[in-house]
## 1
Amino acid sequence: MIYRDSASYGKRQEYIAVSELLKRNFDVYMTLIDDQGIDCVVRVNHTRYLDIQIKTRSKNAIPRDWAYFPRLNVPEGRDNYFFLFFSEGANCYWTFPANDIISLAASAGTNVSRNLTGANAGKYAIRTAGHSSGCCIPFERFDKYKNDYGFALLK
């Protein structure tokens, strides 16, 4: 991937993710600046809005990292904050409530962790799929967050 391509990959994928939301009849509002960890806002009804952070991984990443999303700032206690992950290698979306990421990180063996030390202390990481023989294989434990099931969590 050349620089121009890699520099714009994330923004292109954000727009593609927003188009997925629009195809599913969500009312989506784009933010101009992502300084609060919010790429778009989804209006569920006249009183409920969801803040969405979109994270994507390219097939040009190391194959074992095709569905690895590190260094996540996950706000605590916000039931309206969601992450929308997309893996090009797995060709899958996962929609996670921020509170679920926090809960999963507190349990061993969930493929979700919280950094306790170092430059990324307090940040979370999630691996939504494994890699084998050139294929990205989504973890079954995250099926309720995957594709249509995950998008349904926003309703």
Note: Residues 3-23 form the longest helix (21 residues).
## 2
Amino acid sequence: MQTAKRPVHLNLFQIRLPIAGVMSILHRLCGVLLFLSLPAFSWLLHASIADAETWRGIVAWLATPFGRVFLILSMWALLHHLLAGIRYLLLDLDLGVDRPAYRLTAWAVVLAAPLLALLVGVLL
């Protein structure tokens, strides 16, 4: 009888995923973040249209460092989820399924989303 050596635990910091796997995990993470942030954004929208004073308070809060980080992270999640979703739609149409193309598009999504989020955060 032969016993196989199985890992006792998986060290997730030692597993090296390809860039498409990292992008896929980030796509799922962004989807969860967007879903969990829906109540906060709904409340912000409701409060901002309630009256002018509340709207000025929300604008002032978004100008604080915490508000700016919240805005940039929200934009990153939205942009990453959007760009990765477009990439997956193209893959479903058999566009970019060969090895160099799917790596290149995964890198493009991973790099473009935070850059665009920072650009939007700086411009706002």
Note: The chain has a mean pLDDT of 89.
## 3
Amino acid sequence: MAAQNKKTERKKYEKTPVPAKSPNLNVRSAGKHKAAPSYEVIALKAYEIWLAEGRQPGCDRKNWFEAKAQLLAA
């Protein structure tokens, strides 16, 4: 009897339609939130900040977070 219940459950599952994938599944409300900038975009902006500040060594983390903040604010 348990095997028959599994078959009917399986049939029900197979008949349920699969919803179409939306590109904004992780965004709560489209238009209000921007996608996070990519690694490459942040790296390029951090490099530009590093050049503008006179190529100071040891500022990579500061430049990274500053670049990310600037890109998210824009």
Note: Helices lie at 2-15, 39-52, 60-73.
